[in-house]
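Can't paste images in this forum, so I'm doing it all in text. The chain is below; anyone willing to post the predicted structure tokens underneath?
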Amino acid sequence: MLGFLTENLQISFRKFLALMFLFTSSFGWFLSFFARFDDIFSFFINSEFWLNIGNLLFLSSVIVSAFIGSMVVDKVARKKLLLFLTLFGLLSSVPLLFSRDANVALFLCVLLGASFGSLLPLVQSFFTDSTIPEERGRVSGFLILSIFIFAVFAMLIIDLLSLDSIGMFLIMIGLKLTGFLPFLLVSIADKVEKAKPWLQVLKNKDFGIYLLAYILFNVCSGLVTFIWSGRRVTEDFLAEHNSAMVLRYFGIAIIAVFTGFWADKFGRKKPVILGVVMLGVAYALVGLTLTPDTYFLQLVFSGLAWGILIVIYNIIPGDLAFPGSEYKFYTLGIIIPFILYTGINSGGRFLTFLPPLEIFSTILSIVLFLSVIPILYAKETVSESKIQTTRLKEHIKKVKKVMKKAEKENNKP
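Text version of the structure:
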């Protein structure tokens, strides 16, 4: 019934599995880990202030390590670098199983952030090299589906077994271990082309337009996090949060598959615009009232929107990157949004005052409106000829099916 989603995919099953495990050990690990950051580290760090410092150190380390990685990626073989960063992330996790020292936990926040920030762009660049533009959307969609299934499974285990901090951390280590499986499945070749200088990458106008919109999306996300983090947490909010996050992740997983199909068939711009509209609906709820019910709906609706945007922004840097420079393009997609999100998110965690909700609602509306403008002027990364060719092939297949059916009817006695 849903065979059209995988029709004519050229990527091998083994290559897809390799990509799936690489994304699970990096992006999937980050989703699960960051969602439970406070739950995990509160066991080691009793002070809320120092817990917030640990959160800030982790996010800052992601930013710095992504940039450092862009300087060494051309000097080290891809396979060796992937293996080293995967092992580094695993070894950075182990000490927390044996140490109860808050200073050690803070130091490990830095190491864990570094292992993720430098690994994800490398995984994404390998994804680009392993796919062709005509199927990149669907492959990305199925990868996001797989990642969020792993993430939901991890969340359900944590909740059903009522795991403590150590138990949660063991689940995170399990996700990290999946990063070693790709080396058994496929051969990971080095890049052939040499990366362009940073100046040339930064001058890429088409990517800059898409990146500007993505930055504005992350500003909105950070503002909403700021709003909720400053509110008094009650049992009702916690109950809604746990149930909403499972639905949110399931929603992201399902919508990602159809977004990938849509992106390959009709281009990348239309899904982004739909994602912005859905974000607007989700964040409009924040402007109404802050109750457990609106919190639940906002998490679910914004999750669907981010399901679309995550798929598209896993594709666009690879579509627009100069050959050999994919790592730098994906790095930009991490560094700038993360800087903004870190600043806004940290502000929400450290500041004790709460500006009026009306101010946030107005800012959110303005930023979301502004984010649509760059997309309208952005270049479609799938050429119109390829889109028309895809539609023509589908039309021919439909005509052949109709002719075949008519032929069978005519041959009946």
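The longest helix spans residues 235-266. Residues 167 and 383 are 48 Å apart (CA to CA).
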